[in-house]
Amino acid sequence: MTAHRSHLSTVIADYLALKQALGRQFFHERRVLTNLEHFLAPRTPGGPSITPDAFAAWCLTFTHLCPTSRRNRMRIVRNLCLYIRRTEPSYYVPDPATFPTPQAPRRPYIFSKADIVRILRTADGLPPRSTSPLRGPMMRLAVVLLYTAGLRRGELVRLVLSDYDPIESTLLIRRSKFHKSRLVALSPGAVRELEAYLLVRRRLPHEADAPLLVCRRRGLRARSGAGLGQSLRRLFQDAGVRTARGGAPRVHDLRHTHAVHVLLRWYRAGMDVQAKLPALATSMGHVSIVSTAYYLAMLSPVVEAANERFARHCAALFTQPSSEGGEE
Fold it and tell me: What is the predicted pLDDT for the residue at 323?
């Protein structure tokens, strides 16, 4: 016997189906709305419904989260209420002015080239473990690919051996964050590192669809994103790389660093950065250069390089020419 679905449950299912038909995954939104429905079910007679009191009570269940996370959950429910209001004009819609103020984005740590060298040397000294027989070479390769190719952590751990094309020197990144696949060209240095890693990787099973980065837990399997993140942060600490606050940089900061260093190379080479920015956006898997600008805007090395270029090309325009006849 099929349980009777509440009106809210039906509306949520229709809303999610619409968004997914438009190409959105909405996995997080589904979890949030399912949690809301389960919370409301025993508290709203006549079937779960979003009322001001019910919404306020639900918000109290996640006060332990940071303001940005709380605001995001509340925004998800507000968007659902706006959807419901299309057919029910009097339906309650939360006021976003009452939502927590989002935290300012955390400023990324930009690794120096000296930082990268220290991290790679530290990785070389990592001994193998029973659960990680290729520990040192694997951690070294992870840093190289995250830094030189600007990969996301999830993209890195999903790579399989056949994603590397040794003839074209490219990596195939399959259906990433924005559900698109792309080819990433590798630098000569990254190719050398990858080839060196593959020499030791062949000691283990190496079918075409075998994971590039592996661990040995209940058989040979791909490294998890969370596990790789913990190992990399420990590697940063062991190498003595610290942020201004004394903590370890985030793994994602290697991606920030890739973008900034690429931009700096273009500036210093005198290239037209605006014309080349779409190429960086494509390589990093962004849907537009607006997303790429998030990584680049107002980072001091870039600003300094831009100022230097401006001074070289435009200083003469602001130099007061001397008057041969003296003051008039």
Answer: 46
